Amino acid sequence: MDRLSVLPVSFFPMLSSGEMTIEQWAGMGKKYGVHYIDLPNWAFRNHTPVYLRQQRYMLDAIGIQVGAIGTHSDLTNPDRMQRKRELTFLEYDIALASEVGARCIRVTDGQAHPGLEVEAGLDYITEGLSQAIHTANDYGVTICVENHGFPSAWIYDDFSHDIQIFRRLAARLREIGVKLNFDTANATGCGQDAAALLEEVYDQVAAVHIADTASGLTTVHTALGAGICPIENVLHVLYSNGFEGLITIEEDSKSGELGVFQAIEHVRGIWRSFNS
Hints:
10 helices, alpha/beta
C-alpha cells in the first residue's frame, strides 16, 4: 500500500500543546513503514519561509511526505464578509499544503447555520470552491471535500451531514471539478452503508479516511475493527477498482503508539487478504 497515510487524531492534544512535534510524528510513521503522514493546518507553528523550509527539509530527511493538510472551512457562513475570510483562509492553507509538499488539502464545506436554506448553502459552497480550485490548480494541490460530522472547531453540525444534502453537494462538486475525501466512519455515522455510498461517488473520490465508529447515528470513533463500519468492504471497493488516491487511517483509538501500530497492521492485513 504505497499511498497509505495516518492522521494522528489520538495525538492531537500532544501536537497542540507542543508535547509532540511534527518530526516525532513523522518518525513514528516512518517506523511503521508508511510513506505519508497527514496533519492539521494548525500543527505548523507559523508560516514563515525559514520555518516551513526547515519542516520540509526535516520530512525529506526522514523520508516521508505529507499526504494531506486538514482544514475546517466554514464556507456556508451566512455573513458575506466571513465567507470571504474563510475563502482567504482556505487559499492560505492551499499555499501551505504546497509549501510542505502535500498531495491534498482536506476541506469541510461549512456549518449548518440556523436558518440557512439548503439551496443557499449549496450556492455559497459552490461559489467559494469555484474560486479556491483555481488557486489549488496553480499550486498543484487537490481539494478534497469530506463528508464530515461535527468537528470540535465548530458550533454547529456539518452542513452536508444529512446524506441527501451530501448527494446534492457531490453533484455540485462534480460540476466544478472538486474532489471528495470519503470518510468511512462519517458515512456509517449517518446511517449509511459506507461501502455502498463509496461506490456511488467513487468517480469523485481522490482521498479516503479509514476510520471506525461505534454508532450509526453519529460518529463515535473507536479503534479500527472495534466498531460497526464495514472497513473490509470499503477497502475491497478501493482494491477492486485500482484506487490510486491517498488512503489515510484516521487513528483515534486514544491508545497511543500501540493504537497507531495496530491500525496500520489492521488495514494492511485486510489489503493483503485480497491478494491471497
